[in-house]
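Hi support team,

I submitted a single chain yesterday and got back a structure, but I'm not sure I'm reading the C-alpha cell output correctly. Could someone confirm the output below corresponds to the sequence I sent? I've pasted both exactly as they appear in my results page.

Thanks,
R.
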Amino acid sequence: MNLNAFLVGLLFGLGLIVSGMTDPSKVIGFLDLAGTWDPSLAFVMAGAILIGAGAFTMAKKRQRSLLGAPMRLSTATELDSRLLLGSLVFGIGWGLSGFCPGPAVVSAAAGQPKAWIFVASMLAGMALYNMIERRGK
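Hi R., thanks for writing in. Yes, this is the structure output for that exact sequence:
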C-alpha cells in the first residue's frame, strides 16, 4: 500500500513539474489580474477538475478501491466557519508565496531555498493547529 501511495505521489509531482506549477511565478502570474495575466494555471486546474470529477463519479459507485480497501468518501455538505477561515488562510499564503503544499514539497525536493522556507512554515502551522486543537478538547 505504501508503494502505491509513493507511486501516485511521484506521478503527481511529475505532473506538477511538467505543467510548470512548481514555479511560484506561474501562480503569481495567474493571480495578477491587473498585470501580465498568465492563464496556464486555469488550464491545469480545469484539467484536474475534469479528471477528478470522472474519478469521483466512478468512486461513488464502488464499495472498495482498486486495491481492495473500503471506500471512504466525505459526506460533508455544509460550509462552516472553520472551512471558510482555513480556505482564507490557505489562499493568502498561496497568493503571497506562490506555493501551495504539493508544488512546495516538489520544489523543496528539487532544492529551492524558498520552498524549504515555505515547507518549514507550513509544518510549523500544522503543528500549531494540532496544539490548539488538543487544548480545545
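A quick pointer for reading it: The chain is about 70% helix and 0% strand. Let us know if anything else looks off.

Best,
Support desk
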